[in-house]
Amino acid sequence: MDSSGIISGQVEQRLQKAVDAVPAGHWAVGVSGGADSTALLRLLVTRDDLQLTVAHLNHQTRGEASDGDEKFVRVLAASLQIPFVAEKLSALGDELQNAPANPSAKYRQARFLFFSRVIEQHGCRGVLLAHHAGDVDETVFQRLMRGSGYTGLTGIAAELTVQNVLVLRPLLRIEPILLRDYLRSISQTWRTDASNDSNEYGRNRVRSLLACHPSLRSALDEVRRSCLELHQWVQGVSPCFPQRFAAKQLASLPSLFSREAAKRWLIGIGCPADLMEPPVIERLIQMASDACTPSRQVFPGKIVVVRKSGWIDS
Fold first, then answer.
1. 185/164 Cα distance (integer angstroms)
2. DSSP string over 282-302
């Protein structure tokens, strides 16, 4: 962006190309009031074939500041003549009784519970979220430090279903600085969350580290692309099992392929894809390879899997 506050034509084309990839129709847009989600909303309203509903969950973690975020998004939506739906975290209390103890996981579950309500009540196809290239780098770095397998190092999915909510993330190839430049070019303000500057949170420490060592971003991108290519190859060559298959078919596969085949089979019989964590997949593999494991087990989605006479069935 030059000193006049006008972004270059090349940047504008990149931003427009990103939002043009969103299929036409009615979508919820998750807007926190921060720069990223505010930019996403302002970019989406340039599309004539999109019907939007702004969805804002007030996490109530920063007192008046959280209420200020909600007010900001409400006013922004009104100025753009877009329906606005907000809910406070406390309103979801009864439905979050079994939520994870980890605050980040709890808030994530709460957001998708809220999004599912908005989608159902307003007839939306799914929800659009503003994760960007910076988020991808940070996610890969954090997973690398935790010793994630190659599937975890593929980054953030541009499209997936979480808790029965279809999620699209059209900005994953856009650097966050470009989103802020875009907002400045149209004189659009945004809200700043002071907690994003606190080193109390792991993601903030990672963000600071990457800012001090920008060369790490290209290395992380290379890791991500390599792992994505490996994942695509494994998906292409791993077998697809019918509902009833011989346990030895799964047990005899190299681990690289057995994990993919087991995951694919579990999803195929009705297990939620977003709950296919490594321990779940490994449990099916152990069930197929070790006769001492329980012959009847319940998997995510309350799916019962049975091993009998050397066969696996559901």
1. 37
2. HHHHHHHH-TTS-SEEEETTT
Q: For residue 227, what are its two tokens?
A: 């792992």
Q: In what order do the strands lie in the sheet with 303-308?
A: 245-246, 311-313, 303-308, 296-299
Q: Please, which residues bridge with residue 127 across strands?
A: 28, 167
Q: Is 234 within 8 Å of 260 (Cβ atoms)?
A: yes
Task: Please report the pLDDT score of residue 203 as a whole number.
Answer: 84
User: How far apart (Å, rounded) are the C-alpha atoms in residues 148 and 151?
Assistant: 8
**For the chain, what is the largest distance between any 2 Cα atoms, rounded to a whole number of angstroms?**
75
Q: What is the CATH number of domain 9-132+155-195?
A: 3.40.50.620
pLDDT attached to residue 61: 81
Bridge partner list, 84:
54
Output the six-digit token pair for 286: 């152990």
Amino acid at 91: A
Give the separation between CA 303 and CA 276, rounded to whole angstroms. 13
Q: What is the pLDDT of residue 68?
A: 95
Cβ-defined contacts of 251-254 (< 8 Å, 24+): 251/285, 251/288, 251/289
Residues of the chain with pLDDT under 50: 1-4
Strands 245-246 and 127-128: unpaired
Which of helix, strand or coil describes residue 24?
coil
Q: What pLDDT is stored for residue 4 in this prediction?
A: 47
Q: Report how far apart, in Å, the C-alpha atoms of 88 and of each of 28, 60, 78 are.
A: 17, 7, 19
Q: Is 256 exposed, middle or buried (0-12, 13-18, 19+ CB in 10 A)?
A: middle
Which residue type does 198 have?
A: S
pTM of the prediction? 0.87
Sheet with strand 50-58: strands edge to edge = 84-88, 50-58, 25-30, 127-128, 165-168, 159-162
Torsion over CA of 260, 263, 266 and 272, rounded to 10 degrees? -150
